[in-house]
Amino acid sequence: MTDSRYLKRTIIKEEVECNSLGEKRKLRIYLPPGYNEILSYPVVYCQDGEEFFNFGRIATHSNRLILDEGIEPFIIVGIEVDTSVRTEEYAPFGNRFEAYCASITEEIIPFVERNYPVRSEPDERILAGDSLGGSFSLHLAMKNPELFSKIISLSGAFYEPSLKLIATEADLSRLSLYMVVGLQEQNYTTDTGTYNFVELNRRAKELLEERGAKVEYFEKDGKHLWGFWQQELPDALIHFLK
């Protein structure tokens, strides 16, 4: 049975005016046990923010890691998405991709840093995402080396345009990635086609390592579902926050 201490979570809902996108964007912000605004905290920025909280149970996992595993307290920022335009925002070939990248770096992060005591060094910020959110997190870090160096990719959707972008980079030694993919993801259909996610992740790993990135990589029994990713989240967080 889940310990009730893990379920006592402080989650604040915010809304940010994103001029880059011409709209407001909702955030969910998790504050750790013992939160004190005079301290400073590492921060995890999650794509598909609503799903990370509802299906990934990231707040419950984080409470347990902080209370029982001795992990340094951290803040989570879940960036919500309208699923009808998700591919347009997350995919490098999407027509909202550049605007969404700008909304994070120019509007969402400044808003969070004005209102919460999060650290601003690249190695104190973690980008996390599942599927297209995982590959997006890598692209955002590649575009903004002064902001990000750590990426959690849960079954990242490393389609050909993404692989080509990685291949154009000369030096990615500043990046550290935690990548996991399910072995039952070899024939998964998305809104843009049917893909072998295992093969795509293997190719992405190879390209990243050839360019000096540090990659912790796992292939495990699992499907392209939150039931798999939820179980993998604690180890991913521990990897960067221990």
UniProtKB/TrEMBL annotation:
Recorded superkingdom: Bacteria
Residues passing through the membrane, by range: none
Keywords: Hydrolase
Keyword rRNA-binding annotated: no
Molecular-function GO term, any one: hydrolase activity
UniProt-recorded name of the protein: Alpha/beta hydrolase-fold protein
Taxonomic lineage of the native organism: Bacteria, Bacillati, Bacillota, Bacilli, Bacillales
